[in-house]
Amino acid sequence: MSFGAALLEGALDLLKEGIHLSEVIRGYQLAAAKCLEFIKGNVCWTVDDVRSTAQLSRAIVPVVNAKQVGFEGFLADLIAQACVQVMPEDPKKFDTDCIRVAKVIGGAIPKSTVIQGMALVGNRSGGATEKKKAKVAVFGVGLEMSGTETKGTVLLNSAEELMNYSKTEEGKMEEFVQGLVEAKVDVVIAMGAIQDIAVHYLNKHGIMFIKTASKFELKRLCKALNAVPLVRIGKPLPEEIGYAEGVTVHEIGGNKIIVINTGDSRIATLLLRGATPHLLDEVERAVDDAVNLVRMVATKDGRFVPGGGATEIEAAHKLQEFGATVSGLEQYGVLKFAETFEIVPKILARNAGLNETKVVTALYAAHAEGSKNACVNLDAFGTNSIMAPIDAEANGILDHCETKTWAIRLAVDAALTVLSVDNIIVAKQAGGPKEDKFYK
Description:
By secondary structure, the chain is an alpha+beta fold. Among the domains are: 2-44 and 306-419, GROEL, domain 1, CATH 1.10.560; 117-264, 3-Layer(bba) Sandwich (GroEL). Helices cover 45% and strands 17% of the residues. It has helices spanning 2-16, 21-40, 53-65, 72-86, 159-182, 196-204, 215-225, 277-299, 310-323, 330-340, 343-351, 356-368, 401-419; strands at 45-46, 99-105, 113-115, 117-121, 124-126, 130-139, 187-191, 208-212, 242-252, 255-261, 268-274, 303-306, 374-375, 390-391, 398-400. The strands form 4 sheets. A 7-stranded mixed β-sheet has the order 4-10-9-6-7-8-5, with helices on both faces. A 3-stranded antiparallel β-sheet has the order 1-12-15. It starts with a helix and ends in a 21-residue tail after the last helix.
């Protein structure tokens, strides 16, 4: 957004100097094509193995650091570990939905952990509190006997008739639970209500039950357990039953947490701990950004370029050299395009309380000497103190190459679309002119 706005401001400056709009657009198009070539040629590091926790962690650190300064190393390791656990044989099939987040208020971020499977927060459970090597039956309906389609009135004349009336429902529920026992089911997961009579028989046979209200959560549970969701109340078939290495109920920070561990799970859960909901929400957003970066690395491109304004200044430096070779008025558009790249290091310097003019000058000097990875040094406090730019690659300040090129391409397309508008048509309200109240 900032880069696109800078392009439009630069175009306005050229128009005020008398350069025709068509010349500005052609200059921008020339510079955009060359700019993408320069950026792709400035790659400094590549993720070779998407199943390497160390490599993924290094790629994730800059993303997490943008939102959680101080915990970037710890969180990057956790996210990389979770991504490696669910990485399919074909990395191009990596699904971000396989990484789940469970937030628990209480404790500190360093107490967060990765669960190979799923963690359910606040779900109702009963029966046993721990099951090892458990067979799990998943029901997409509630554990209750369905009522009749039509309403009716039953006349009971004695207590014996009342007892016999309720025995039918109890008998059916007992028969259903007995079928679970015969199938050697240890845990039952249901979406919907669980009748008290069902709770009674499940407790009687030592079967643990979990109630969930989200169909999306139920879908992920089936994926993690390799189970089939049943829409009938009956004995499950062997191929419909899932498996879990362990199902345990914990109490963390006053919240009930149901941890479902699976051996070869295709689902991993980041159990985040924090003092406030606001902090946990920020960490969750950082996790979401990091997981999407891993998806880009696994499915498209694992190349990275120097961050911290290094790539932008290098591209600006090369574009200025290229602009000197362009003949015609397009040269002004190319040079102005190169100048707009200064917006990134300027914003970084301004946010850090540095003198942006001196920072950009120091970066240009370093890149002119051949230091392609020189970036803004955010440790240079004060507007009068200038420390030498630091090496982005050596300090782990990296930007994903494909993401950066697409961001630049889309910003340029947006700016050129605005510049290419010849006429603006204002829509008017239909129905003719409004009635004049004066002549009423």
